[in-house]
């Protein structure tokens, strides 16, 4: 038999950085930029998409952005920046429970650190991006993408720091968390005056609230899973929030999309690809039919 050379896979047009928060916590920052760029410096009119849960999202987002570059409608100049953790052997860190959930009166221990994470993004990461990742580059607009707890975090950021991003992409947001506490923050947000009106995209899968029974699942386990999905009420909660925010007039645009026959895990690829494409190529965001 002949020998086979084995080498480590390396990604072109990408880089990884370790950035420390003020409390010493380390974050893995992964970046993907257009393949036609010769360097990361000196560009204009750049769109930047930040994605939390970076260990699970970066490759999906990077490949989606690179694939779009082959299409006829591609406008270029889209950069993906993911925020993850120094992990091995898994894609989700327990630290996300703290980083991605809002402080609330009923938050269990180890949760509710969204403000600390936002401070890191606003005061440490964004300046690092401008000075080290995209030096001498004019960033035209920025978006935040998050799924599940990340989607909850995206909504929390919108309701508490609406000027931090131009667009918020909330995929399957955990609206139910901590007795639906995010609804209290939404109500407070709708009473505010927002000078810079951002846009919001919401996505979810139809199976999240109405899951089918698996082929090898017994009736008791399915009923328990079905009841849990019904209590979390993804479809109902997301659509109710969409209607309220649309009627509030506080946002430049609000859209929502249900993906049929997708569940909480499979909808990630759908929402990330669609959200990224819309933000990079179809900006400013428009409601369907407008």
TrEMBL record:
Per its UniProt record, what InterPro entries does this chain match? AB_hydrolase_fold (IPR029058), Esterase-like (IPR000801), Siderophore_Hydrolase_D (IPR052558)
* Record key words, sorted: Hydrolase
**SUPFAM superfamilies reported in the protein's UniProt record:** alpha/beta-Hydrolases
GO molecular function list:
hydrolase activity, acting on ester bonds
Q: Does the keyword Hydrolase apply?
A: yes
For the keyword Ligase, the answer is no
Family per record: Belongs to the esterase D family.
Name listed for the protein in its UniProt record: Siderophore esterase IroE-like
Natural source organism: Pochonia chlamydosporia 170
